[in-house]
């Protein structure tokens, strides 16, 4: 069998938010969206790569003009079903071309996949309208769960890519905040803000199991307050993990950079 081209390579990775560890990824998506909202501008959105459209749909009430791009055709079919009013294009970002300019461009969890992140940052920024904003998310190599994994011996270093990272998600590199800002600078762009999303103390499959099976009821002496008000303690746990992540961004699951043209 010959060597796969880049689009074929991206299409072979099965990961999407709705299939793998869906309980945790639904909460993470919610807070990824929340982290973006205060930085978004205007009424036009370009979402690269939009994947199955889960988060594109969550942003949709904010924008009149929405375009999504993804290299994986099967994921795009799911996105089209979620948001039929948007325009979707099946393409690598490297090959994508459109004359529109956008007030907000998103690249949520893409840079870790591409061959040349500097080129991709420049390409994404080329679609910005005057005073537009580019918001980038990447997984954090220095997340607290990865630091724990190094101490446990399940990772040799925080930057090591696991078999899941490589074979299921299709990651080519890992990031921490300094390396993310370094790539933005090399692309000739300006970082105006950085931060983190979600303080994640366990691995993704462990987090997913915990959210599904944890002792969330007060009577189980788990996370609920004995004799306190009746609350959805799973929701409260996730909200608190997001708020703690705001305070300790370098320990978070996800790092973000808010970027403008120089």
Question: What features would you describe in this structure?
Answer:
The chain has 262 residues and is an alpha/beta fold. The chain has a single domain (6-204, 248-261), classed as Rossmann fold (3-Layer(aba) Sandwich), CATH 3.40.50.150. 37% of the residues lie in helices and 19% in strands. It has 10 helices and 7 strands. It has helices spanning 6-11, 22-37, 54-59, 73-82, 117-125, 144-152, 163-169, 177-186, 204-213, 233-247, and strands at 44-48, 65-70, 87-90, 102-108, 128-139, 189-197, 254-261. The protein has a 7-stranded mixed sheet with strand order 3-2-1-4-5-7-6, sandwiched between helices. Helix 2 (22-37) packs across helix 9. The protein is globular. The protein starts with 5 loop residues before the first helix and ends with a strand. The model has no long low-confidence stretch (mean pLDDT 93).
């Amino acid at each position: 069998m010959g060597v796969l081209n880049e689009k074929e390579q991206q299409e072979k990775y099965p990961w999407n938010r709705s299939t793998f560890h869906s309980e945790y990824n639904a909460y993470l998506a919610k807070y990824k969206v929340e982290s973006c909202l205060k930085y978004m501008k205007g009424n036009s959105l370009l979402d690269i790569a939009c994947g199955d459209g889960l988060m594109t749909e969550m942003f949709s009430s904010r924008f009149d003009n929405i375009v999504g791009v993804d290299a994986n055709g099967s994921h795009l079919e799911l996105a089209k079903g979620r948001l039929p009013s948007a325009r979707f294009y099946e393409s690598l970002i490297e090959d994508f071309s459109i004359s529109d300019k956008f007030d907000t461009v998103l690249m949520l969890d893409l840079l870790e996949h591409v061959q040349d992140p500097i080129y991709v940052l420049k390409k994404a920024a080329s679609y910005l309208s005057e005073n537009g904003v580019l918001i980038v998310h990447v997984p954090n190599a220095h997340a607290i769960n990865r630091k724990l994994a190094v101490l446990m011996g399940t990772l040799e270093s925080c930057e090591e890519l696991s078999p899941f990272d490589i074979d299921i998600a299709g990651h080519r590199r890992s990031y921490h905040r300094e390396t993310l800002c370094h790539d933005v600078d090399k692309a000739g762009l300006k970082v105006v803000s950085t931060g983190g999303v979600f303080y994640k103390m366990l691995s993704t499959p462990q987090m997913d199991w915990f959210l599904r099976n944890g002792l969330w009821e007060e009577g189980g002496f788990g996370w609920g307050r004995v004799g306190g008000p009746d609350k959805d303690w799973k929701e409260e746990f996730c909200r608190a993990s997001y708020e703690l992540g705001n305070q300790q961004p370098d320990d978070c699951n996800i790092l973000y950079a808010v970027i403008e043209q120089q």
